[in-house]
């Protein structure tokens, strides 16, 4: 059954009140979470009434209930997709066995590591985005930012529930540590690189939600296949929320592009200086931001050859994207996969056992999905009759993880010398000057229906509300 | 089940490829597996989508909420949808009329693709001559009971036991129709009159995929086919011909009609949160149906009949317009005729009765205009239409004519009916 119990301090659909020990543990964690939200959550937003979507049940009618709420009163809770009767593990060495309802002893450490790594990204992005509210390009966008933030908070809850419920004392300690680490902190940083980068402006935010939240989609999809049933059910519900975050990114960048096209057509120019002078973002800058966020994000999938990835798969902890829809043997012991390496100054493909290459498999699935969206952005430019096209850089470009780290590769996929890299990198990655220019455009616009000059209004509002709806009451 | 010859126009559900971000939420949500994707687009299978709207609230973009009026025979296939960069324009009335040249002669009365909820209204539709679907309410009446929906999906179906299967029209006639009773034992499956359930036929299709569920309206009241028992009944017509009249065995209807007492059936649902009956004293119910569209009408009538004995009725009227080819084909004819005349006002239309002119439900409605005019102006009156898609337009037009001939403002009445959840259309 999917109804959520709202009479309790922690809304849930997992019969929390029947497990008093767990309930008390989570009720002790709850004030720490709220204090974390107060410290590093969206700046200055405590008293706003925000038009937010809240889940009241996990069925289609119930999970998207809209209304104005103050963010600290958002009903963060524990929601799992309904259990599938007699679910079986459908890949790896345990294929065909019943899915685990408790953590198997031999996989405990690996599962905890997977959950902590996923859980750590959720509060990290809230921290990264906490100042953005001060420079929102519209009330509509500000509301979308806050929706993303509260749902990242809920995703933290989802992971913390698993840690508390299934991992005993270690789990409780890990749950505390999730609130202690800070994005970008020198002494106690977040676990993954991309989550210690700054999100200084709204173009970064849109790129982040497009590229990096899409990484979230693929990681969660792979975990939704897990043989550990509570993890699969939790991540399935998270995926429905994650979709909104990718929407914010894809439509955000698309609207930036739309506006740039409008101004270029009005001025009949493609001169970046004139475009910038008109207060919109030139395509060179957009392309460099894209290159940066894309390359940083594909690092998140991990090393191209990984024995951990093989172990996670074979032991049934983490599947592939859409594992259930694939038609191979779901064990992969005899399969190979191509990964890149540098040999004699050239990028070449080599075969590795597919089990060891599973990070690369997921990365390639992600790349395909990402490129499709960039294609949709190009349609906007094409419609405006402008010959420019955005491109996705080569997957070896600007990598910090795996065998390609330390190799200098151009966006086109040519291995280049350090000297050439140094000479060209300002054409490829955002410069301090690019960032300063984008930052100079960031002024707060929050009157209903008004939009900053550098971004076009959306096609439609949230939940079929008009675009000029009062999405936030500032009180 | 019989209606005048006309083109069957459906509201085809489509996803706007320009706005869609390919997040997969709709595909993951769809209870009947109607949504799929390739590397470029997310698309909807017109022959599977039942308009239940479960995919609409979870869509982050609004791309999901697009509908086009198209002749059913010319619905956009998924291969074509995969190639789209933008949605096609709405067909013009002329294009729709041109498609009417290939009008489908007669549809088999199949309940296999029964919609779960009212058809969506379409603000973006072109100037169609008369769009009956736009008049259907999407909210229930104010005194409807709360409906539970989607308690069980394709991944967690509930198992029901067949406890009854009887034929409910005369043997030897066409359109063999069965009354099936399913029991849920100790598992929760709360339903209301007007809701439907999905039955998952066993086995797999030629590609090895499990069959998708077929939806059937519940024919029993909320407290069970047998009062106080955890069971529901369905009205299922055995499908033996396709839309062109070629012999075809309906996969699920034949499975269901052949079930034996004691067989186990996989069920999903319940579905539907708007086609629900009013529960307040003095509320009137006007029911207009053909063939197996009688299922929800039987459920509502039976619930009222059970309440009547307890004196909770206070003069609320029941009025039924029921169409079939002949008296012998009409489901539940015997029990219907034994209902007291002061309880329900029954009007039967037979389109193939030997030696009598063809009569359709809308003909009877025009004959009863004097009574319908009063009900159209009564805020306690609720109208329910269920049956073949092709009857819907005729029925709504009949209501309009009744109003106009009495000098009433039809658009104002229709707007109130829709707003207040008092006109419900469920056609397939």
What is the makeup of the main sheet of chain A?
3 strands, antiparallel
CATH superfamily of the largest domain in chain B: Nucleotide-binding domain of ferredoxin-NADP reductase (FNR) module
CATH level-3 fold name of chain A: Ribonucleotide Reductase, subunit A
Given the helix and strand composition of chain B, which structural class is it?
A: alpha/beta
Note the gap between the termini of chain B: 11 Å
The span between the termini of chain A is 39 Å
Q: What is the succession of H and E elements of chain B?
A: EHEEEHHEEEEEHEEHEHEHHEHHE
CATH superfamily of chain A, by name, is Ribonucleotide Reductase, subunit A
Segments of chain B where pLDDT lies below 50 for 5+ residues? 1-5, 101-128
Query: Structurally, how many domains make up the residues of chain B?
Result: 3
Task: Output the strand order for the largest sheet of chain A.
Answer: 2-1-5
Class based on secondary structure composition and strand pairing of chain A = mainly alpha
CATH class group of the largest domain in chain B: Alpha Beta
Mean pLDDT of chain B: 84
- Give the amount of beta strand of chain B, in percent: 15-25%
What does this structure look like?
The complex is a heterodimer of chains A (475) and B (428). With 475 residues, chain A is mainly α. Chain A has helices at 20-40, 108-128, 139-166, 168-180, 202-223, 229-267, 272-277, 283-298, 307-314, 358-383, 418-428, 432-441, and strands at residues 49-54, 65-70, 336-343, 346-353, 472-473. Chain A has a three-stranded antiparallel β-sheet. Chain A starts with 19 loop residues before the first helix and ends with a strand. The mean pLDDT of chain A is 93. Chain B has three domains: 9-108, Alpha-Beta Plaits; 158-271, Translation factors (Elongation Factor Tu (Ef-tu), domain 3); 284-427, 3-Layer(aba) Sandwich (Rossmann fold). Chain B has helices at residues 25-29, 78-82, 93-99, 251-257, 294-308, 333-337, 361-367, 369-376, 389-405, 410-419, and strands at 9-14, 35-37, 42-44, 66-71, 158-167, 177-183, 196-200, 214-217, 231-237, 264-271, 284-290, 318-324, 345-350, 381-387, 423-427. In chain B, strands 8-7-10-5-6-9 form a six-stranded antiparallel β-sheet. Chain B has a five-stranded parallel β-sheet with strand order 13-12-11-14-15, sandwiched between helices. Chain B has a two-stranded antiparallel ribbon with strand order 1-4. In chain B, strand 2 (35-37) and strand 3 (42-44) form a beta hairpin. In chain B, helix 7 runs parallel beside helix 9. Chain B starts with 8 loop residues before the first strand and ends with a strand. Classes of the chains: A mainly alpha (475), B alpha/beta (428). The interface between A and B is medium-sized, with 31 and 33 residues.
């Amino acid at each position: 059954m999917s109804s959520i119990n709202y009479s309790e301090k922690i809304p849930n659909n997992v019969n929390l009140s029947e497990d008093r020990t767990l309930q008390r543990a989570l009720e002790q964690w709850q004030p720490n979470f709220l204090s974390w939200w107060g410290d590093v959550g969206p700046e200055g937003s405590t008293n706003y009434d925000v038009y937010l979507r809240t889940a009241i049940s996990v069925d289609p009618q119930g999970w998207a209930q809209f209304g104005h709420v103050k963010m600290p009163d958002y009903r963060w809770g524990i929601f799992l997709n309904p259990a599938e009767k007699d679910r079986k593990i459908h890949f790896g060495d345990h294929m065909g066995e019943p899915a685990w309802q408790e953590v198997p002893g031999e996989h405990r450490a690996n599962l905890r590591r997977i959950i902590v790594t996923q859980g750590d990204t959720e509060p990290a992005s809230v921290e990264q985005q906490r100042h953005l509210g001060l420079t929102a390009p519209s009330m509509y966008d500000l509301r979308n930012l806050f929706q993303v933030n509260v749902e990242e908070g809920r995703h933290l809850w989802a992971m913390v529930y698993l840690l508390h419920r299934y991992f005993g004392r270690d789990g409780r300690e890990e749950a505390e540590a999730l609130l202690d680490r800070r994005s970008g902190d020198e002494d106690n940083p977040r676990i993954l690189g991309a989550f210690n980068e700054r999100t200084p402006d709204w173009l970064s935010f849109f790129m982040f939600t497009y590229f990096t939240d899409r990484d979230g989609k693929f990681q969660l999809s792979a975990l939704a296949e897990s043989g550990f049933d509570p993890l699969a059910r939790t991540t399935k519900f998270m995926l429905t929320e994650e979709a909104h975050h990718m929407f914010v990114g894809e439509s955000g960048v698309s609207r930036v592009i739309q506006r740039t096209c409008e101004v270029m057509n009005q001025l009949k120019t493609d001169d970046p200086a004139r475009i910038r002078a008109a207060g919109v973002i030139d395509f060179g800058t957009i392309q460099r931001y894209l290159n940066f966020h894309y390359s940083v994000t594909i690092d998140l999938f991990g090393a191209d050859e990984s024995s951990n990835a093989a172990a996670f798969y074979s032991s049934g902890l983490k599947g592939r994207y859409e594992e259930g829809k694939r038609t191979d043997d779901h064990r992969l012991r005899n399969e190979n996969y191509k990964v890149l390496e540098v040999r004699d100054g050239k990028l070449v493909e080599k075969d590795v056992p597919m089990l060891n290459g599973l990070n690369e498999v997921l990365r390639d699935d992600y790349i395909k999905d990402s490129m499709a969206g960039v294609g949709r952005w190009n349609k906007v430019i094409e419609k405006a009759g402008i010959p420019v096209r955005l491109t996705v850089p080569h997957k070896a470009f600007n990598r910090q993880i795996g065998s390609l780290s330390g190799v200098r590769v151009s966006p086109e996929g040519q291995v280049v010398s350090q000297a050439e890299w140094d000479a060209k990198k300002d054409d490829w990655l955002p410069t301090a000057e690019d960032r300063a220019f984008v930052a100079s455009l960031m002024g707060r616009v929050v009157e209903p229906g008004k939009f900053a000059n550098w971004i076009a209004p959306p096609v439609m509002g949230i939940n079929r509300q008009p675009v000029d709806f009062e999405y936030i009451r500032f009180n | 089940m019989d209606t005048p010859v006309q083109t069957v126009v459906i509201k085809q559900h489509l996803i706007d490829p320009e706005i869609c971000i390919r997040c997969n939420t709709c595909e993951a949500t769809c209870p009947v597996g109607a949504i799929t994707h390739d590397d470029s687009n997310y698309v909807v299978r017109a022959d599977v989508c039942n308009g239940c709207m479960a995919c609409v609230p979870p869509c982050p973009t609004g791309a999901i909420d697009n509908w086009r009026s198209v002749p059913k025979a010319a619905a956009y296939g998924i291969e074509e949808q995969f190639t789209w960069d933008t949605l096609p324009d709405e067909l013009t009335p002329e294009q729709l009329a041109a498609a009417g040249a290939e009008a489908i002669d007669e549809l088999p009365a199949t309940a296999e693709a029964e919609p779960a909820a009212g058809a969506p209204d379409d603000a973006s539709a072109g100037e169609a001559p008369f769009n009956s679907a736009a008049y259907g309410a999407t909210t229930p009446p104010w005194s409807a009971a709360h409906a539970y929906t989607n308690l069980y999906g394709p991944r967690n179906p509930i198992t029901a036991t067949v406890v009854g299967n009887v034929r409910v029209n005369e043997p030897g006639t066409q359109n063999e129709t069965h009354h099936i009773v399913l029991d849920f034992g100790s598992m929760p499956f709360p339903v209301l009159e007007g809701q439907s359930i999905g039955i998952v036929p066993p086995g797999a299709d030629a590609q090895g995929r499990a069959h998708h569920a077929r939806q059937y309206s519940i024919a029993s009241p909320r407290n069970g086919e047998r009062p106080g028992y955890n069971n529901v009944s369905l009205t299922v017509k055995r499908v033996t011909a396709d839309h062109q009249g070629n012999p075809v065995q309906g996969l699920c209807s034949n499975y269901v009609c052949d079930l034996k007492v004691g067989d186990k059936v996989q069920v999903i649902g319940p579905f539907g949160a708007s086609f629900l009956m009013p529960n307040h004293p003095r509320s009137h119910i006007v029911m207009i149906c053909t063939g197996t569209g009688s299922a929800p009408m039987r459920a509502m009538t039976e619930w009222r009949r059970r309440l009547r004995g307890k004196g909770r009725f206070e003069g609320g009227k029941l009025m039924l317009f029921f169409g079939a080819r002949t008296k012998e084909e009409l489901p539940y004819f015997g029990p219907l005729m034994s209902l007291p005349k002061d309880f329900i006002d029954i009007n039967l239309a037979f389109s193939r009765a030997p030696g009598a002119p063809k009569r359709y439900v809308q003909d009877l409605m025009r004959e009863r205009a004097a009574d319908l005019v009063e009900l159209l102006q009564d805020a306690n009156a609720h109208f329910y239409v269920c049956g073949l898609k092709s009857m819907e337009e005729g029925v709504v037009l009949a209501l309009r004519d009744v109003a106009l001939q009495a000098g009433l403002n039809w658009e104002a009445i229709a707007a109130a009916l829709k707003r207040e959840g008092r006109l419900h259309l469920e056609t397939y």
